[in-house]
Amino acid sequence: MPAEVHPGLAALSDQLVLVAVLCYAVAMIGYALDLAFARTAEASPAEAGAETRAETRAETEPALAAVGGPADTGKAAAAASGAAPEDVRDGIAAATATGEGTAGSETATGDAAAGFEAASGADGAPSGWVLRAGPAAVVLSWLGFALNLGSLLTRGLAADRWPWGNMYEFVVAMCLAAMGAFLLMQLRYPVRFLGAFVTAASALGLGFAVHSLHVDAAPAMVALNSYWIAIHVSAAIIASGLFIVAGACGVIFLIRHEAADHLPSRQELERVAHRAIVIGFPIWTFAVVAGALWADKAWGRYWGWDPKEIWAFITWIVYAGYLHARATAGWKGRAAMIVQLVAFACLLFNLIGVNIFIDGLHSYAEVP
Amino acid sequence: MTLTDGRPEEKAESRPVGLGAAGWARWFWRTLTSMRTALILLFLFALASIPGSVWPQRGVSDAKVAQYYDDSPALAEWLDRFWLFDVFKAPWFAAIYLLLFVSLIGCVLPRTAAHLRELRRKPPAAPRNLARLPQHAVLGGDLTVEEAARRLRRLRFRVTTGPGWVAAEKGYLKETGNLLFHVALLGLLLAVGAGALYGYRGNVLVVEGDGFANTVAAYDRYMPGQQVNAESLEPFSFTLEDFQATYIAQGPKRGQALDYAARLAVSDAPGAPERDYELKVNEPLDVNGTLTYLIDHGYAPTFRITDGQGQVAFEGSVPCLVVQPATFTSECVIKVPDALPEQLGLMVAFLPTAVPAEGGEWVSVFPGAANPTAQVYGAFAGDLGMGNGRPQSVYEIPPEILKKMKPLVMKADPLAKGEKLELPGGAGTIEFTGVREWVALQITHDPGRLPALLSAALATAALVFSLTVRRRRVWVRTGAGDGPAEAGGLTRTEGGDFGEEFADIVAVLNQGSTPGVKDAR
Ligand code: HEM
């Protein structure tokens, strides 16, 4: 393994990250505008579809109870009541658009509030540019994503190794994974509302990485010198990206007022969070198993209750708890969301807390 | 995710009726195996592992446990009383996971039985009014029951038919995956348990040129499981021919290690021919499932010590402990019980790349041995106290013994390779003759390793099925004269978009016929 680091590529990598932060930050404003003004006025066709479907389901679900036995009744009822807030939201939409400017999301800035007056025309319909804020934000997010990816690639090339060998690189990669998870999801599902939160998290994450975690590109420590890093850490990063998306849903779920506002319905949030976790959980499971396989090669045991292992395990158990909670009556909705957020907190603690406060075999983070 | 069965926890809600031991036992079993109890036990399991990351654990960081005892003995004693230095061996921890796994068995067994029954059962008959299902479509007119059944079978549905209707179902793999996942977790627990009982672990330090044969006596530290017998150790042996560490030579990361490699000549069994093996950090030596890992390294300078009577009283290598990992500044102790007229004890600082620093000090600036020096910073004559049968660490002279010895030298000038230091009072000479390196190896045998891997792999694969497969049912009514043919469908799995798949199914059913009107999904 060569010891040289390519200085030009390393510097390019550092610059790309900065531009990515900028893209995410501007995209975030776009999403916030979208969330505050455009969304209520014009639900995207996909969303409208989802709502129609939800309504249809609410009507037809009682029929299932007869078909599927007693266990179905609860679900049908939940679906029926769950559909209600969406109708309410649609009803409220007109009212919001005509001018009670609560500027619903907390990410909406003063500018946005001021823009509100201009944006909503005399007839209450938002003018064109606000409607374009959302799509523009998506384009900017993709751009930021590409820069973020480019930054990791150039760093990997500069040091000639997998670009996740220290905490700076983990955090950059996790922001990339979160953006990736969100961007792929919004291709298929109407989840643009998450954009403001995911871009905010990624911009802050990258900013934090650049500001407090940055170390110069360098060869990896000997123990990281293995193809297992590609398998184990990549899986952990991808799963974390999905969990971040779910975490964002959880946060919105909790800050959302009972009364309808600009944010998506609780049911929608639960659906998106659940979907992200259902994909993320097996990947996390795989990451933990791959970690055990690597530990078996590197440390002479596959599981040794090292602090990092303990917290990966706790995170896994709590996400499993979330999946069980969803399957158990009485733990749906808010309770399950809280479980999910606790799991997410464990994930974050494992990334930040364990690397900084607790030392163990996994002390590769090189926190500056 | 069964479509029809009630869940155990619904039954668990009912209080024990009619009392009696059997009634209580039933109630207890139902409560234990209810989903809610499983959930609580899961959280307890997670909660109970937290202390393991808060306090140092024996077997992971013994030195820190000892440190804890030194710093606050009273507190440490209390913590120990609650097994907080052995969380993962604690009875309360075991209680939680054993209850969890009993609960798991109690949950999985009835569900497996139910699932097996379900697998043999035919899909339920079509409901009267398909239009009330979440998915519904009107089909082209000329579809027969046989044709609909054929097409649905081709879509890998399990199909049953009746007069004028077809019922079809697929996605049984979801429940199969779920059950296999939970069974695999049980397998994992058993594998881990077996490994702890029938495996062993040992540590040994080997200096370049020396050998090791896998017997209990050869270990510096040997930790067998309860069921291991000493004869069952894999009888291999090896010689450490050479150890190489490479470091970054320049730049801000100067001194960071790039690679370690130990060259071994391995003999897999007594009398077997030797083979070369390059032992590296992520590449353990495997001899029939007994693995040898490279976990640490350091320097073992060699010395020749001539005593006051002109005899060579010591000749060989002395493993040094690393004091500063970044520069491999190391310290070692040489005990010379054979020296005459008095026994000698020497304390040596070993600097792999020594440069002079302020105030006549010498420091090491690089971990590689570019300019190795050995500095005697303490030499003592007298009784080393080794005759009293009490075991001593090779890395230190106990302070109470040192106090009784006669100091000869404090802080001599560093010796370069080949240089000698004359001890005062005719006590002898010490010559720094060369540098070797030592490696610390861990040797493990864990019979649960492969079963654990298989269980974990099965769990992961089964989980994917459990979480991604959807159980779905489709019914077709051919209309039988009064009204058009129609199809209805439902899935109980949340998330996912059955609508799209249902539309595809309807398209297959409609193939070759005049498409009917598709109504709202
Ligand atoms: C070792 C601890 C356990 C872990 C890590 C675990 C993990 C999981 C996971 C990840 C799922 C999700 C699969 C899905 O949603 O389809 C699941 C489902 C399930 N688990 Fe567990 N489990 C554990 C113990 C238990 C126990 C003790 C029970 C029984 C009391 C149980 C009963 C179930 C049931 C019934 C489901 C299916 C839920 C549904 O129908 O959606 N599990 N488990």
From TrEMBL, chain A:
Where's it found, cell-wise? Membrane
* Region Disordered, annotated ranges: 48-71
Q: How is this protein positioned relative to the membrane? A: Multi-pass membrane protein
What GO terms are given for molecular function? heme binding
Q: Which residues form the Cytochrome c assembly protein domain?
A: 164-362
Pfam families noted in UniProt: Cytochrom_C_asm
This protein's GO cellular component annotations are: plasma membrane
Q: Please provide the record's keywords in A-Z order.
A: Cytochrome c-type biogenesis, Membrane, Transmembrane, Transmembrane helix
Tell me which Gene Ontology terms the entry assigns under biological process.
cytochrome complex assembly
Task: State where it is primarily located.
Answer: membrane
**UniProt biased composition (Basic and acidic residues):** 50-60
Annotated TM spans: 16-37, 129-147, 167-187, 194-215, 227-255, 276-295, 310-325, 337-358
Low complexity biased stretches: 61-71
Q: Which domain of life is it from?
A: Bacteria
Any idea what this protein is called?
Cytochrome c assembly protein domain-containing protein
Its source organism is Planomonospora parontospora
Starting at the broadest rank, the lineage of the source organism is: Bacteria, Bacillati, Actinomycetota, Actinomycetes, Streptosporangiales
From TrEMBL, chain B:
User: InterPro entries, per this entry?
Assistant: Cyt_c_bgen_Ccs1/CcsB/ResB, ResB-like_domain
Q: Which residues form the signal peptide?
A: none
Assign the protein's first listed, main location to one coarse class.
membrane
UniProt KW keywords: Cytochrome c-type biogenesis, Membrane, Transmembrane, Transmembrane helix
What is the superkingdom listed in this entry's lineage? Bacteria
Q: Which residues form the ResB-like domain?
A: 35-503
**Entry's transmembrane regions:** 38-55, 92-113, 179-200, 450-469
Q: Where in the cell is it found?
A: Membrane
The identity of this protein, by name, is Cytochrome c biosynthesis protein
Per the UniProt entry, what species is this protein from, by scientific name?
A: Planomonospora parontospora
Source lineage? Bacteria, Bacillati, Actinomycetota, Actinomycetes, Streptosporangiales
